[in-house]
Amino acid sequence: MIFAGELKVGYVIKYNGGLYTIQKAKYNWSGRNEATMTVKMKNIENASTIDIVMKGSEKLEDVQLDHRDMKFIYASGDSYAFMDEESYEQIEVFADDLGDVLNFLKEDGRVIVSFYESRPVAYALPKTVTLEVTYTEPGEKGDSSGNPLKPAKVETGYELGVPLFVNIGDKIVIDTKTGEYLSRA
What's the pTM value of the predicted model, to 2 decimals? Predict the structure, then answer.
């Protein structure tokens, strides 16, 4: 059991019979000896989100997940196959379940798959990925006021802003949480 006041982003809990991942958690102190938590949760099963306020002393059932580093091996239609390189176990996942992970997923890419009772329930990427720029316009010389960015498309089809000096064929490092350019690889 866990108290609502201890919730943090990324925790997985059971709430009203469903599995939820915490997306936002804000601790509020009212000054009358009563703390509350404002929480945004996403249902792992159907992807719906709810916003609730609960007492900080409310007990919730936290869930222990088994996390495994898996390798993306292929896509077939709307499903994606991953393999655990230690056990060689393979799973197939629908694109809808992967969400934003698809923006940064390339063949042989790594994904951290979280399992609950032997069922995959959540997918996360490493903090950064290195991808090749497949399209961008040439940078305009002389336009260096501030920190100018130009649009670019990487090998997965994801589009983001990059500095003017980045060209087609360059490999860049991208923050997977924000989707922003970090550096050249």
Answer: 0.72
